[in-house]
Design brief:
The chain has 26 residues and is mainly alpha-helical. Helix content is 92%, strand content 0%. It is built from 1 helix and no strands.
Length: 26
Amino acid sequence: MRQLRGQERAITANRQTSWSFADAFV
């Protein structure tokens, strides 16, 4: 359960980075 929580957090961080990258790219 703890590992799943960390994975979810990593996914959220990755998603935020992706959005930031897209914003900078555009």
